[in-house]
Amino acid sequence: MYILHHALKNLIRNKGRNILIGLVLTAIIAASVVGLVINNTASAVIDDYRTRFSSQVRIIPDFGFFRARYGGMGIGYHARAVIPSEQALAFAESQYLSGYVMTALKNLGSDYIYPIGDRDLFPSERISGFGMEGDAPVRATFRVMGNMWDEFETGERTMREGRMPQAVGEAVISHELAELNGLSVGDEIEMLHAAFIPEIGAMYIRNVSITYTISGIFLDFTDIEAGFFGAPVPMFHRRNEILTTLGTITQSLGDGAVAIMLVTPTYYLRDPAYLPYFEAEIRTKGLADTFHVSADIDSFRAIVEPVEGLRSVFVTFVVIVLVLGTVILVLLSWIAIRERKYEIGVLRAMGMKKGKVVRGFLYEMGVLTIICLTLGLVAGAAVSQPVADNLLQQQVAIAGRAVPVGQYTADLPLGFIAPVEPLSEISLHLGAVTMVQIAAIALLLAFIASAMGIVNITRYEPIKILVERDR
Amino acid sequence: MSVLTLSNVTYSYEGTKTNVLNGISAVFEAGKVYAIIGRSGTGKSTLLSLIAGLDVSTDGDILYNGTDLKSIDRDKYRAKGIGVIFQSFNLLINATAVDNIVLSMNISGSAESDKRQFAYDLLQKIGIDKTTADRKILKLSGGEQQRVGIARALSHSPDVIIADEPTGNLDTDTENAILDIFTSLAHDEGKCVIIVTHSKEVSSIADEILAMKDGNFDGMKTMD
Ligand SMILES: Nc1ncnc2c1ncn2[C@@H]1O[C@H](COP(=O)(O)OP(=O)(O)OP(=O)(O)O)[C@@H](O)[C@H]1O
Ligand SMILES: [Mg+2]
């Protein structure tokens, strides 16, 4: 007990020396706090970028090739320039992915319901000519969309009655379309695909019928004109859109019929570095050479590199501070110990055991360290908080721009999106890690500094310490 | 009754060849004041260091109550068995006078309930008042420091008190007061007091005087 008491008094007795050592220690700790907080924040930010933004894979057809081969239009061109839905789903089953979002779109006609628009021509319109075999293809007057729920998130569409589609075969339609055809929730609508039958011939067409059950009717506030590309044809009339799940739109048509469908998969890699592995995997799963696979690594770098640069600057800074600080601390303790050698000799001459002298030293250094740790943490936090906040804010802004995909719960198994980690959690997690690191640094430094003293204390008989002093 | 027995004690400082002490033998008894005299550099302080248990002899033995100092816990011996007044004081210079004494009492495991008050009283006895006692050793005069050293040596009531030039920095009045304390400790309390000195006054109160020359005793005289 008296040893601690003596140690505390000693701290005050040797104010000058201890303030000097304390300042160096505090400065080291504060600098480490700043460096580590920024390092950890940057790491968290970079990790966050990786998972939520950077790693989006693009699979783009070689349009030049397709145009040269198929003349840039017609069913053949479309059929080959899109990724078949089975493939798109197979690609999603990859360990390199953190998630994927997929939408699909196909055009259908109907002999039973009218589209909004040109009532005179429909239903039962068939296209003639084009030199194809089999059925004269039904003219597409509706668009069926799989997993496209953005308007429900923005509020441009809301459910009026019924519910969102869940089971395979369910779909929702606009209130206007329901009115026009006298449809209500629970009714079935029969649609027609102009589908390929490749087994019979490359250009063999059959009109395959498919039935949807109306699970709900929505109110639509979207801009009708927005869908028209020049001509106001019913197919592009937004009130004619039939919305369903990915599971429904990709369901098999049977009898070897292949739907002409545009599947738009978006894959998210766990890490941009996995791109080559992912590409190799999907090539073996059947992705044609006529598609290019890429990830947005360049723009990832453009955003991440400044953060990484900042981080490495601070890591360097911390290392320099630690090395310099340790050298200064060791020098200071060395000088202090020379000065204290006499004190050690006196204590030993008074009969204090080596162990107790060592304990006294450890207490002194320990208390000094705790004080410096507190001061250093407070000072460091005060300085680093604005910097870290700024970093995080930037990250929020960028991340906000980078994740445009929406999701809809009813379709979760297929339209699964990479989980987005809230930022507040990152900063909390960061605090704990940093604290532990700082405490470790402080304890290490304190140990180095007191080790100097301990070595000295245990080396001599008291007489040698007393007779060797310069006095 | 002999408290300390020196037999053939030889010592040389580490790294030197010459013996500072050359086979000293002597017997120190309880209840007596001894004076050790001799020229500067003959090894008086060195001998006291060995008696104080600050190091062990290179040859020969020092027995404390019949036990060889080499074989006992010398830390405990220094803390409890002996009180040393160093020629150069060896006080904690940044601590106050009273703190020096309280610390010494703590190290010796003194049973005193109010150590601080005990220390003030002890200092008062040898002419250090409370204000002076609360000053750092650095800020005390040589004579004051010497008296703090004396108080520290007495604070844990050891059997043996050894003093290296204890009155070198003191005026005659203070010197006499200190010497009275020493004689009283020996004659009334039965302590063994060994004083190294150049002073006639000091040797005059001794029961025995030992003259040192070239690391050995020249002869032993008994005062009348
Ligand atoms: N640490 C040391 N290393 C080597 N020699 C030493 C050391 N300390 C003292 N000496 C030598 O030992 C001899 C005895 O020294 P000591 O201090 O015991 O003398 P002393 O009799 O106390 O002298 P004084 O009357 O001046 O105090 C001296 O010759 C001195 O130079
Ligand atoms: Mg001497």
What attributes does this structure have?
heterodimer, A: 471 residues, alpha+beta, 11-stranded mixed beta sheet, 13 helices, elongated, B: 224 residues, alpha/beta, Rossmann fold, 6-stranded mixed beta sheet, 4-stranded antiparallel beta sheet, binds adenosine-5'-triphosphate, binds magnesium ion
SSE topology:
The complex is a heterodimer of chains A (471) and B (224).
Chain A: H1 2-13, H2 15-54, E1 56-61, H3 63-70, H4 74-81, H5 85-92, E2 97-108, E3 133-134, E4 142-146, H6 150-154, E5 157-162, E6 170-174, H7 175-181, E7 188-196, E8 204-220, E9 241-244, H8 246-249, E10 261-269, H9 275-284, E11 291-295, H10 297-349, H11 354-402, H12 423-457, H13 462-468
Parallel strand pairs in A: 3-8, 4-9, 6-8
Antiparallel strand pairs in A: 1-10, 1-11, 2-4, 2-10, 5-8, 6-9, 7-8
Helix pairs in contact in A: 1-11, 2-10, 2-11, 2-12, 3-4, 10-11, 10-12, 10-13, 11-12
Chain B: E1 2-11, E2 21-29, E3 33-38, H1 44-51, E4 59-64, E5 67-68, H2 74-81, E6 82-85, H3 97-108, H4 115-125, H5 130-133, H6 142-155, E7 160-164, H7 172-187, E8 192-196, H8 200-205, E9 208-213, E10 216-222
Helix pairs in contact in B: 2-3, 3-4, 3-6, 4-6
Bound molecules: adenosine-5'-triphosphate and magnesium ion.
